[in-house]
Amino acid sequence: MKPLVSLLSLLLYLNPSLPYSLKNCTIDYSVNPTADVFLNCANRKLCTVPDDIPRDVSSIKLDNNIIEKINRDDFSNLSKLKSLYLQINWISHVDDGSFIDLGALTVLEMSGNYLTNLTANLFQGLSSLTVLSLRWNEVQFIHTLAFQSLTSLQTVILLSNQLQQISDIQPLLQLPHLQKLNIIDNQFTSFDTKDLLNMSSSLKVLYVSSEKLKTFSISTPVFPQLETINLCQINSGTFVRWDVPDKTLLKSITQLLISNTWIPFEEIQNVLQSLESLIHLKLSYMDEWIVKGLLETVCKIQTLTSLDLSHSNVTNLSAKLVTCSQLSDLDLSNTHMTELPKGSILSLKRLRFMTVKTNSLTKVPDDIRSLSSLEILNLSDNLISELGCDDFTNTTHLIELYLNMNNIVNLHRCVLEKLNDLKVLDMSNNLLRTFGGAFKITLQKLEFLNLRGNSVSFFEKGDFQGLGSLKHLDVTNIEKIRPGAFDGLVKLESLRISVPPKLYYNYSALQQLKSLSIYYNVEDGFNHPDLNDYDFFYTLKSLKIFTIICKGYHFDFPYEVSTNTIYTMKYLESFTAENIYVSAPNGFTFHYHTHLKNLTIRQTDMSDLDPMLFETIPNLQVLDFSNCYLKSLDFLVKARPPALRFLNLSNNELTVINETVFQSLPALTHLDLGNNPFTCDCSNAGFIQWVMSNAQTQVVNAHQYTCSFPVAQQGRKLLEFNTESCWMDVSFICFISSTCLVVLALLSSFIYHFLRWQLSYGFYLFLAFLYDSRKKKKGTPHQFDAFVSYNVHDEAWVYREMLPVLEEEQGWRLCLHHRDFQPGKPIMENITDAIYSSKKTICVISRRYLQSDWCSREIQMASFRLFDEQKDVLILLFLEEIPTQQMSPYYRMRKLVKRRTYLSWPQAGQHTGVFWQNVQRALETGNTPDDTNLLSGPTDC
Fold first, then answer.
1. Dihedral of the CA atoms 730, 734, 736, 741 (nearest 10)?
2. Which end of the chain has less neighbouring CB within 10 Å, N or C?
3. Candidate CATH numbers 3.40.50.150, 3.80.10.10, 3.40.50.720, 3.40.640.10; the one for domain 36-153
4. Where is the signal peptide (predicted)?
């Protein structure tokens, strides 16, 4: 048995399409069975690259491990791999050619390692690579041929390494498709294009700076397509000299990002004045220069439309942005502002996007009122406590407004009444107590409203009646929602609420609702909700996603609600219930939910689960019964959901698993059985073998499953249990049984093919023998001269040709089954009686006769009488010329009967009188075997 298991394991390993039973990784679940395979091996304390990576994987995450070296064969034959993440390991060496088989790889992430040298053949084979990240390494040497294979490379990140000279990156700059290069925080003392040999790079984005950088000089036309320069100093207190003598060398620059960079004031002024195409400017941690009046120079750049001053101290902006009237985007995040001085942005009439988040503003800046062109305003994470009626009077073109994470207590109706174009409003995590009818006014275009985390006690009837276009509403942490509160939300598709068990809301207006999430906070001693509180669920006929979660004490979802309420949601595709049921829901709960694909029930005692629950869910793909006290999986054997792909049964009480359970789930690809108290004995041997060898289902983290029983095996890995002793006797029995079955099948096939007619003949011969014995004892005289055996298709010939001659002219008494068989008697008994009650048997043979089972039995019975009595009692009349090879196998037995009488109707031709005289002579011939045959016809059949 052991060699067989080893062979099976080898076959599984060689098959590139079997990503199952992985020791240290899991495959991320995807709803789409044809989607790319994503392998997750992150945070596993791995010292080496796993050796069981499936060949069809498209993405591998190996980050946050302790891998020290990449070997030549670690990623061999992974021709479909597109993304490889190796960041935050201890990698200090990579064998040359380690990536040679990764021709489809587009992203290689190796940040946070200990690489020092990039050798000539390190990246060999990576012809499709577009992104290479080597940040936070110790790279100090790059071979001139290191990047020769990377013909598709577009982005390279070498941030925080040990590169000494700008010439080290020249091999990179020679790549034909390079667009973005980040070399911030290296050991450069200068960045001077004179150090680069005569060349022209396709680079568009350059990030450069370091603690030691003293000169940034572009004096040669190395970067004709350069669009973005990012100068970001790291913990530096030294000045950087900017040297660009010819401003035409920066004619393509549209973005300049300067952060914590000490460029002399006059030089940075000259730099900004030379950038004729600048569109976006970022000045972070540039407090001193802003105070000196740098913004006056900035505002003179006519092409500038976007200004980012985040993380700079601009507490006094008065009159500094007055001349920046061309701006359309302004970012003042994290600028330590307690207020925006009045008039500081008054002239920015073209401003469309403004961000002032994460400051200490106590009110909406007055200047906001004058920005009529503003479309997006972000004031989140401030100290605003009150909104005035005039705050947004003139910002009538606002589309998105973010006021979350403030201290707003009240919202008055007048605050929002002018915002007719508003689509997104976020006021979450404030101190709102009332809405003051703010949402009763007509906000015709509002689609997203977030009000979670406020202190509103309840919603009244009609509070949202003006939001006719609203699609997404989040009102979690609101205590009560009274009937009619959702009136007017005719287009609402998604609703999130969080309330105590007593419900007061009405869903009747939400006919388009597709997603509903309810969160309960249940405290000790609460009153069980009245069933009438759930009546409004019945109107949610369009719902597709229903989530109901209880935090705190167990909340028992009433039986009537779990059946009658959910019954109306016939288009439900996803149902989640956590800490809701005390026991398993009734078997009829999802009786009408043929569209259900995702069923999640957690923190519920499902030990009494009725398999009928699954009978009407043919499309179920995801089933999560984690933390449900399950002790057996028998319900799956009975349920057999045919489309189930993902099954989560973690944190239950399963000790023994019958592998046949999963064989009844034909589509299962992901199975999670983590944190179950498994038993390490032969009762789980079949399951262990199935986990190791099945070719369809990935058992998530199976190699980490531990044993809880018996006590001596506690803590041991389940898959390390030796199953050989369990299979020894069983395998021998299986061998013997299978051998016997094979032999029996072969023997049965042989007998059927070669001896089936002989066996059938013997059977009827035996029946005739029994009948003949009874007849001899009775001594019954013959009633007929002959029994005529014929096929029904030849009946016309019998009545037209035979009967007129033999009965009317010659006077013989003939027995015909259509005329003389006794009604009600079994057919076989009638045949036997007819043969033994007649002196002779006449067989009228045609091709149809040979194809008839009953005719065959009649001639067999007559043949037995011939052998038994040793008398000539059988007369054969051939109505057709039939070649010997076409004879039925029954008639081949006639070869055993020698010197019998044969008559041929076709040979009689026009002389039928002679034919009937021969028949008469055959009927008159004595019954002794020595009588001479005087009839013509074939002598052998």
1. 160
2. N
3. 3.80.10.10
4. 1-19
